Amino acid sequence: MYDRLVLRRPDDWHLHLRDGAMLAAVAPSSAAFGRAIIMPNLVPPVVTGAQARAYRDRIRTALPEGAALHPLMTLYLTEGSDPADILAAHAEGLIAAVKLYPAGATTNSDSGVRDFDRVRPVLEAMAGAGVPLLVHGEVTDPAVDIFDREAVFLDRVLDPIRRATPGLRVVLEHVTTRDGLDYVRAGGPDMGGTITAHHLVINRNHILAGGIRPHYYCLPVAKRETHRRALVEAATGGETCFFLGTDSAPHPDHAKESACGCAGCFTAPVTMPLLAAVFEAEGALDRLEGFASLHGPAFYRLPPNEDRIALVRRDVPFAAPSHIDAGGESVTVFDPGQPLYWHPEEAE
Ligand code: NCD
Ligand code: ZN
Known about the structure:
The protein is of the alpha/beta class. The protein has eleven helices and 13 strands.
């Protein structure tokens, strides 16, 4: 049995840092990750290389002194995206990827793609230059049941895109179903999948049984228990196509605790203690480094971080705050529903 685990510094391959007072409030919670893929769904979205550069500078300013975090920027794909601007931003190392939101699929996705034929030239240019496409994989058709939207997206949207664009590198983000996992597994070396920490511990009962719990509501919505178990097996099983993307997505409490609450779980403050608990329960602590620190860089063709963190198992639970303050607004931290005994520390 371990009581101290040393691993290469983990990365977060899907993170919402927001902007302004919220950015200032939440950036410290992710500062100990090595790199993070920064989601571009601001209002208005980050569409051009110039906007990504300005946002990266605001993030750097918001990070605390000595933070490890290196932001990897993304551009928000719209039907008007300019392939030349995307390729130039990628060539100079400003952006690491491009994000596809089907219009209306989730928070701040109104500028996303409605007609996938209109982004075909951009996707072809990205395939040629090796720019990964990060996919929010849910259809928006109101006729499709919300619990089926990921699985339907694979058949209706993602597979046609990939067949029409050979060589396109794709990450299916925040996978929530066995269907999504199997799709990633079958996709070969140009296909990866991120898994959040929260989808490893909640299923749809956590959101709906015994009362509506808005802080467990995110998109893609958590599915039934069999899917959660499949996610745990994929994350802890050592498969290199799966890696950590927290999708930590803070919102002010008033926006979540509402008659129409918005989607997103703010998990960054508890990510590593929670992952350690999940991997420990599976007897797979030796695979945590692969999931959190090795498989992601391998997909992005980057070296793993050189420095290391420690996770130390203590008798006292790890104490994350229940809320943080963002410019006078309260933001609820994800409640893992269990005491967490693994404490992250900087390794000497
Ligand atoms: C994200 C957000 O709040 O920006 N919400 C969420 O439920 N995950 C958007 C997203 O990644 O879908
Ligand atoms: Zn997200």
